[in-house]
Amino acid sequence: MWHLARELSGWAEPGRAATVALHWDKIAAQRLGVVGTAFVRQALAQLSSLPPRDQTLLTDTLRIYLDTGSVTETARRLYCHRNTVINRLARVTSSTGLDPAVPRDAGALRLLLAVDAAAD
After folding, report:
1. CA 53/CA 65 separation, integer angstroms
2. For residues 57 and 120, what is the distance between their CA atoms, to the nearest angstrom?
């Protein structure tokens, strides 16, 4: 258990405890190894073929949507129309085969983003 506590300490923020509930995706990403890498390659293959600016727009939109669970709040944070967010999320779905509005897919997408970030 102390291994987990040591991992969590790296993500602690001032005034807020680092808990497994807050950082499960990062912990899982670190522990997936080769399986995580294969998952990212497969799921992001089509997304990776887009221009870098589009990749960034889609992943930023996805990340905020997964954090908030709200198209309206995502649009507010990105200073764009909610239809823009809906269109970007549809592009994520068509590129990855995973729909962020479906809980199981949303979990997979969150893990995918964490594995991708850990690889950088």
Report:
1. 18
2. 18
Q: What are residue 53's phi and psi, to 5 degrees?
A: -60, -45
Say what the pTM is. Answer: 0.76
Q: What is the dihedral of CA 101, 84, 97, 26, to 10 degrees?
A: -70
What is the longest distance spanned by two Cα atoms in the chain?
A: 46
Exposed / middle / buried, residue 70 (Cβ in 10 Å: 0-12, 13-18, 19+): middle
Residue keyed to tokens 């897919």:
105
Domains, the chain, with CATH or none: 34-119 (1.10.10.2840)
**What pLDDT tens digit does each residue of the chain (120 aa) get?**
667 667 767 767 777 777 766 666 777 777 777 777 787 788 778 888 889 999 999 999 999 999 999 999 999 999 999 999 999 999 999 999 999 999 999 988 988 888 777 766
Q: Which of 22, 113, 67 is nearest to 10 (CA)?
A: 22
